[in-house]
Design a protein that fits this description.
The chain has about 475 residues and is an alpha/beta fold. The strands form three sheets. Strands 5, 6, 7, 8, 9, 10, 11, 12 and 13 form a nine-stranded mixed β-sheet that branches. A two-stranded antiparallel ribbon has the order 1-2. Helix 12 links the parallel strand 8 and strand 9. The longest helix is centred in the N-terminal third of the chain and has 22 residues.
């Protein structure tokens, strides 16, 4: 099937294209240098994701999206359309069936962004002072000034606004949800956030595992679709280790545990691996670990706030998980272990907790998600802007909530920082892990960077133009 190119034509004034009926090669989103990053580990993830029951894996680096067309005689409920052809950003203009890049005048865009920044700052301060009604009025005003086709800051503000939540959010999410599996595969491969955290965590777990360990016992705080683990299963099979994967059970799961378990079991079986996958509530974790008698290497994996996860996680639950993990590692006879923590909130707990008030915390969140949206726009082909908006609605919009941010702020003030909470030693990240991560995000024009830090070099951050997008940390006994 020949790939079809999505273009914006003047004769399409009311086509709300969330995903076009096209196949996108992974090379469409990367330079030749970046293509080398899609190594065997990533290919195993491809096979794992596409191993759906009743169908053959046929992805091979391509993804197929459904095309959603609306009758031109109907008024579109998509926020922005025009008789002259829809443009994904102020700097794009459709012309005779193609997209041209125009250099914006600048003054109007700058004035709009400054105005929005002032309004968002006022909103955060109003919420800090308990003036919720004032904050609602401000966000309504914001919603009237922005749309989904503006610059990253304006799209962020649009998602935050009540206008989006009430009038457009359900529509866009429902249309995007129809293509969720394909969208997830695209998001996970195009953008490095999840792959970066998973690669680093997996490398740490495998490098630190003692040679005499009989079983690798992974305890996953939020397993989701299980996409992190195919590479580890393959490595464990080569090392002749058994693997047990314990997933923590949560309410309102987005993913089916049974489906994820089936894929993991089949993937392990294809490598001759002795694999066991179970799901238990967090309160039963101590009993589950203590009931085992084999010599195990305990790997407690906690990933939170990564965009592909699409949901906000309670910091109290994270703290409880970390405390139980330390207890089991330190107090279990003949057991050793590691804790890996991938945080998509960007700044660490200590930095966020030290904000002078919710207003400054709110502004920090704005800067963080603006950086994510900027990195997404930079990595995505211009002619597929509508598909990018669909991905943003599924994987970024769930994190853009002033009420959720207020709840997170209150929880962080109550919870200890990881640095204070940890009673284990930092697990030093190797240069090999650093180079693997840099290889993943490298490119001649890339604004991504990877840095190692922490007291014992046990932290590795993925940065976009100097702003931390994801932080990975590790501790062991």
């Amino acid at each position: 099937m020949e790939p079809q190119q999505l273009i914006f034509q003047p004769s399409w004034p009311f086509y709300d294209v969330i995903y076009s009926n096209l196949e996108l090669s992974s090379s469409s989103f990367s330079t030749p240098e970046e293509d080398s990053c899609l190594d065997q580990a990533l290919l195993s993830v491809d096979d794992f994701l596409l191993d759906t029951e009743g169908s053959e894996p046929n992805f091979n680096g391509e993804m197929e999206f459904e095309y959603v067309k609306f009758n031109e005689s109907e008024t579109s409920s998509f926020p922005c359309s025009s008789d002259e052809g829809w443009s994904p950003t102020p700097s794009l203009k459709s012309n005779g069936g193609s997209v041209e890049l125009n250099i914006p005048g600048g003054e109007m865009e700058i004035e709009t962004e400054l105005s929005i920044l002032h309004l968002l700052k006022a909103c955060g301060e109003a919420m800090e002072n308990g003036q919720i009604e004032l904050a609602q009025v401000i966000m309504k005003c914001v919603g009237e000034k922005v749309s989904l086709v503006g610059e990253p800051l304006l799209r962020l503000a649009f998602n935050l606004s009540e206008d989006f939540e009430k009038q457009h959010g359900d529509y866009l999410k429902q249309e995007s949800q129809k293509n969720f599996e394909a969208a997830f595969r695209a998001f996970y491969q195009i953008f490095p956030y999840g792959r970066y955290a998973h690669l680093g965590s997996n490398s740490l777990i495998l490098e630190a595992m003692p040679a005499d360990a009989e079983t690798l016992h992974i305890v996953d705080f939020d397993m989701g679709e299980g996409v992190q683990w195919p590479q580890v299963l393959e490595a464990a099979a080569r090392l002749k280790k058994s693997v047990k994967l314990t997933a923590i059970k949560w309410k309102n799961e987005r993913w089916s545990f049974e489906e994820a378990k089936r894929r993991l079991m089949e993937h392990g079986r294809s490598y001759g691996l002795n694999l066991k996958v179970v799901e238990i509530p967090l309160e039963d974790l101590v009993t589950e670990i203590k009931s085992t008698t084999k010599r195990e290497w305990l790997a407690f994996n906690c990933m939170v706030g990564l965009p592909h996860m699409g949901r906000v996680t309670s910091r109290k639950s994270v703290q409880e998980f970390i405390n139980i993990a330390q207890q089991l590692i330190n107090n279990s006879v003949n057991r050793r272990g590691i804790i890996t923590f991938g945080d998509g909130d960007g700044d660490d707990w200590e930095t966020l907790r030290n904000c002078s008030g919710f207003g400054s915390f709110f502004q920090g969140k704005i800067r963080h998600y603006q950086a994510i949206l900027e990195s997404m726009e930079y990595s995505f082909p211009l002619h597929l802007a509508e598909a990018r908006i669909g991905l943003e609605s599924l994987f970024v919009a769930p994190f853009l909530s002033s009420q959720e941010w207020l709840q997170s702020w209150m929880e962080m003030k109550e919870c200890a920082s990881l640095k204070t909470q940890m009673r284990l030693e930092g697990c030093t990240l190797t240069r090999e892990t650093l180079e693997e991560a840099r290889e993943m995000v490298k490119g001649a024009q890339s604004f991504y960077d990877v840095r190692i830090g922490g007291e014992l070099n046990n932290e590795m951050t993925l940065q976009w133009r100097g702003h931390v997008l994801v932080k990975l940390s590790a501790w062991t006994n």
